[in-house]
C-alpha cells in the first residue's frame, strides 16, 4: 500500500487489488472516524477525504488480504441475452453464444467500485474467457439497462450514454433513481448474480 496526498485534506491509498480496496473501505466504514468526510473506492485505490491521519492509523498493520467480515448484500438481475456483441464475444472466446450466457450467469460478481455514471457498478469476478477488450470504436448511444463487459469487469449501463463495452444483453432493472433511498442499486461490496430470462 502507498499513500499519496491529494490537496490539503485528502489522500489516496494505492492498493494491490480490488480486494484490498474493499477490505480497507470496510474497515474504515466500520470504525467511522468522526473527521472522515468521504470515502471513494476505485479499482485499486481508496480516496480518503478528511481524517487522513485517523484512517492511516486505523489501516496501519491491518490485514487487507481477506474480504471484510459479514454477509454482503446480494442482488440478482434478470437479463435478456440478446446483445449486439454476443456473437463477437463468443467468437473471441472460442465458444458458443449459449456457453457465453452460461459463463456469465454462472459467476458471482462483487461490486468493486462505482463510477462513470450514477449507479454504474464495476463488477469483478468475470470468468477468464469473457475478459475481452473494449470495442475499438465506442458507440455514441448505449441504451439504459445494457449489460456489457470490458477487461476484467462486467456492468450495467444505468442510463443511455456513449460507451465502448461489449454488449451481452439488457435488463429492465432500475440501477439509479435519484428519488430512492439509496438512489443507487449497487454499493461497493455487494454481490451480484445475473439470471437469463427470455
From TrEMBL:
Keywords assigned? ATP-binding, Hydrolase, Nucleotide-binding
| Protein name per Swiss-Prot or TrEMBL | Allophanate hydrolase subunit 1
Q: Which organism is it from?
A: Amycolatopsis eburnea
Q: Which GO terms describe its molecular function?
A: ATP binding; hydrolase activity
Q: Does the keyword ATP-binding apply?
A: yes
- Entry annotated with the keyword Hydrolase: yes
Give one Pfam family, short name only.
CT_C_D
Query: Could you tell me which residue ranges the Carboxyltransferase domain spans?
Result: 1-186
